[in-house]
Amino acid sequence: MVIAVNTIEAETLAECDIIVVGAGPVGQRFVETVSRLCPFKTVRWFGNEPWRPYDRIKLSPLLGGDIPYEAVFPDHAFERNNVEQIFNCAIVEIDRHKRCVIDEYGKHHYYKQLVLATGSSPHIPSIPGVKAKRVYTFRNLKDVASLQARSMASRHTIVIGAGLLGLEAARAMLKNSTEVTVVQQAPRIMNRQLDDKAASILQSGLEDRGLKFELGSGVRAIICETIENDRSIVSGVRLQSGKVINCDTVIVCAGIKPNVALASYAKLSVSKGVKVNSNLQTTDANIYAVGECAQFEQEVVGLVGPGLEQAAVAAFHIAGKEVNYKGYISAAKLKVAEESVFSVGDVQEEYHSDRIESFSWRKGSDYRKIYLRKGVLIGALSIGEWSESFQIQEYVRQGRRVGFLRCLLFKLTGNVFDERNATDISTWSEMAVVCNCKSVSRQAISEAFEQGYCTTQALAQKTGASMVCGSCKPLLDQFTGDSESGAVEQSGTSLSLMAFGLLALVVSILTLLMTPFAYSDSVQNPWRFDLLWIQSLYKQISGFSILALCLLAMLLSLSKRWNGFRIGKFVFWRNFHASLGLLCLLLLMAHTGLHFGVNLNQWLMANFIVLSLLGGVAAFVAAKANAMPAKMALQVRRSVNNLHLLAFWPFPVLLGFHIVSVYYF
């Protein structure tokens, strides 16, 4: 229920369970989550902007004219029976003793639990002239409207700050033949996410699109001229180097500062942000803080992803579930003026010690780099598309090791993992992040899929994945089989896998149905086939050959599950694995003459045949997965593969007993 602003004074609102202050993306996520987890708790949601909640991530494409105005708002208004929405109404005070908040009209709203999602404001540097007319910030929908109006008349715009927001604002202002210069005090653009080489490549691409850069020298003053009514308007900027650049518009994108005034006046513990514990509680256990206004340990998040995670943690804690926020690792996968940029973890080399190793790869305008501390992946960055970026991000988050051979492979090819597992999100861990823009996990994707959202469009609408920058859409396509990029192709590799699977099935069934080979009636025969399973030398040759192939097949099976073993393309090793299984079956015929034996030998033979049968079925199903509905293909493949793996576990034990018994007796 949305409550109109002009009725607030006249209407008396009863006490509610939860009050939420802030209607940004983090506030939205908290309200959505807590209203689902606690349907019997009443929620009152405040926002101080005149618009209904919108997607701030889409402000950059809106300013650039890439999307219409309506696209920044959700397709369907958020409606829950237990949620009251009160927008265009700022909260100005918190009374902790009475457990109430006071809005700008003087109305008191009582709560049991309060959640602050007040976000942040643009940081305005203390430079002369910064308050002059035609100096703008780029933070909300009002800023976008002002800049869109100004872009029609601006001839030269200066953007202060070369971070993501500054570069997006600069690109958008290039429309209408406007000259745009980006000024950055640091020696490179996006200095917190990129190294010198990556920044240089990105800068060259942006310069080709018309942007100009002044790096290593910040703005010392904004030069103004006085017009009627003693108003000052921008006429240029003076850099720290002394250089003067004439301009008629300035956009300040110099970072953010957390909105902590409410918390500070309420005497909550505040430093850079509102201090919170691992449950996102402030020093008052009934008050939570999430997003850009919150400070966990020494960190204040300036990214949407960690804020969304904090919102979920706070909602789960209020719902009585055991959860903890453990901090975040900086990660960004986005489009910067149509250039793909990826950065995760510790990539600021100026702060690195000598114990950190780095490996880089470059091909044309594509550039990638990884950082390791004692073999553990701690950071990575890239310019250009990198299909492994999602898996790399998980390695950094989990603190996983990357072996020397993988580092060597990266230097040669630019890839750390095999091609399939980089894009097949069904193999990722549940907490792996598929969509960075919306912080959507693989678990959320799978749950939506199981609920019947089986197309890319349906998954996107349900979870929000791929709805912003679209970089994760190929992953959803692959998961659902919706497009040519994602569907399993009927290629040569699939046909060969199907052939191996069918042959394995046929040979396994024949082994079960055929009678054992007979022994020769005469010792005078020039060539006796039964010598293969009678004579010790031949039996040892075939037996040890089977053992060697089984060990190799086991290692290949592990390579599909342990990233440390993954080298080369997955499809090749999968076909090789299937061919080894078929070869083992043929050698088994030569080794036993189809005589099953007794006791443990009989169990070993039966286990081997069952293992081969399931392996053949698994190969056939994998090859024909493209002919099935996506949901069915996923379920069948998982079931058959799990049965094949289950049948494997008795095999090493039975084989070990067989070898010991043969040589002991």
What do these coordinates show?
With 665 residues, the protein is an alpha/beta fold. The strands form eight sheets. A five-stranded parallel β-sheet has the order 3-2-1-7-19, with helices on one face. A five-stranded parallel β-sheet has the order 9-16-10-11-12, covered by helices on one side. It contains 20 helices and 28 strands. The protein is elongated. It has four domains: 5-56 and 71-120 and 257-318, FAD/NAD(P)-binding domain; 135-254, FAD/NAD(P)-binding domain, CATH 3.50.50.60; 334-480, Enolase-like, domain 1 (2-Layer Sandwich), CATH 3.30.390; 492-664, A middle domain of Talin 1. Helix content is 38%, strand content 20%. A hairpin with a 2-residue loop joins strand 25 (366-373) and strand 26. The longest helix is centred in the C-terminal third of the chain and has 25 residues, at 599-623. Mean pLDDT is 82; it is low at 1-12 and 483-493.
**Strand segment count:** 28
Helix content: 25-40%
| Mean pLDDT rating | 82
Principal-axis shape equals: elongated
Low-confidence parts, pLDDT < 50 over ≥5 residues?
Answer: 1-12, 483-493
**Based on the structure, what is the oligomeric state of the protein chains?**
single chain
Features:
five-stranded parallel sheet, single chain, about 675 residues, disordered N terminus, FAD/NAD(P)-binding domain, Enolase-like, domain 1, alpha/beta
What's the layout of helices and strands?
Elements lengths: L17 E4 L3 H13 L5 E5 L11 H5 L19 E5 L3 E5 L4 E4 L4 E3 L2 E4 L3 E3 L12 E3 L3 H11 L4 E5 L3 H10 L5 E6 L11 H13 L3 E4 L3 E8 L5 E8 L4 E3 L2 E4 L3 E3 L2 H5 L8 E3 L10 E3 L4 E3 L2 E2 L3 H15 L12 E6 L2 E7 L10 E8 L2 E8 L2 E8 L5 H10 L5 H10 L5 H5 L9 E3 L4 E2 H9 L5 H8 L9 H8 L11 H22 L17 H4 L1 H24 L10 H23 L6 H25 L6 H19 L1 H15 L1
Parallel strand pairs: 1-2, 1-7, 2-3, 7-19, 9-16, 10-11, 10-16, 11-12, 18-20
Antiparallel strand pairs: 4-5, 5-6, 8-17, 13-14, 14-15, 20-21, 22-23, 23-26, 24-25, 25-26, 27-28
Helix pairs in contact: 1-7, 14-17, 14-18, 16-17, 17-18, 18-19, 18-20
